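Sample 3 of the quickstart, ligand zinc ion:
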Amino acid sequence: MRLLLLLCSLSLWLFGFNAFVSDAKVANGKTTLVEIKKEDGYRYRGIKLASKEFELYDHPKKAGWLYAIVPISYYQKPEDMRLVISFVHNSKEQSRELFIKVEDGKYEKEKISVQPSKVKLSGKNKERAEREYAEAMKIYSKVTQKNYLVSAFIYPMQSKITSDFGKARVYNDTLNGFHGGTDFRADVGTPIVAVNDGVVVLASDRFYSGNSMIIDHGRGVYSCYFHMSRFDVKVGDIVKRGVQIGLSGKSGRVTGPHLHFAIRVNNTLVDPMQFIATLNQNLLQE
Ligand SMILES: [Zn+2]
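Result:
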């Protein structure tokens, strides 16, 4: 695969193109970065993976380069996929392809017992959960052009991780999705900080996730903090990395107090720890 990728990169370079992906092999639920060297006479449009499109932005660390953050859906099957880079050259619409190998994330299964009323929903709760889901999807599908990501990400708290992203979840013996974030051990009242600069776009009580906060970091990147007991900032506030945004709790559908921390990129839930490591290493300043 490495050789194949090398050959691809080489051939792209021969066409006046230099582009590569940070991880040629990437598991479902993980994030990869595409980097493209800008050449004179080329106008770069964007990147496509299957039916999803991703915008290209100026690389903050490498002058003359562009980048795109490409999240791989948890539900993506293992297979070789094409990343299609489109551009205009000599007044003609053209494209080149890079290949990535999507691997099986080999996520574990986890059995959880919760109040039956939080699995089999009453009509009223179902309506509420659906309304809140629609509200969240509306937020996540918006790509804010302003960029708040300059410095490296930090963690929302310094605490033990009690459940990783991606575990298939079996609630009261019924398979019900997967764990869409990382859980941090936290007694009720533990301070939570913003993982990076951004704008608070949601701070409300929701059926499943309890007191929930969402921060928009720009360019399609959102961080989420669930099951909180107190909000210290409100919708519309611009927050700086490391500022206290509230306290952890046990609101919503939980088995005990903890912080559920999640990252969404272009409306795709990704492993937050791997996302942070990838961006910090390749894109952001220490
Ligand atoms: Zn969780």
